[in-house]
Amino acid sequence: MIQGTVTTDGVPTVSLAVGGKTWTATIDTGFNGDLELPEALRPFVKPRFLAPTEWLLAGGQRTIEDTYEVEFSFDGEILAAEATFVPDDSILIGTGLMNQYRLTIDFVAGTVLLERLI
User: Fold this and answer.
1) Residue 100: how many CB atoms within 10 A of its CB?
2) 3-state SS track over the chain
């Protein structure tokens, strides 16, 4: 189980420890991939190049990004996940990584809960 909070701007987040640092990860239900990671995490997740991947973004915009298989620590386990890397300092968690979880976001209470079901 992973617990998090909803920011004052209404963004659901959780904290994840990766590479000896705690990172804020945004739960992005509009992202059907697994992960978007900061470049700074590349040395810690053992990336293996898979292929260029085309993504359809909000508003119909398309982009192509290199996709990697990474070893990512999530909810106490090391998972094989697909990730892209970006030059900023936040993590996006997509629905692909949460496909065995129940996601509960309580905007009034400001809480986020990810419960593994499988």
Assistant:
1) 12
2) CEEEEECCCCCEEEEEEECCEEEEEEECCCCCCCEEEEHHHHHHCCCEEEEEEEEECHHHCEEEEEEEEEEEEECCEEEEEEEEEECCCCEEECCCCCCCEEEEEECCCCEEEEEECC
The model carries a pTM of 0.90
Whose structure tokens read 């890397």?
85
CATH number where 58 lies: 2.40.70.10
pLDDT digits (tens, 9 = 90+) for 67-107: 999 999 999 999 999 999 999 988 999 999 999 999 999 99
Overall domain count for the chain: 1
Sequence length of the chain is: 118
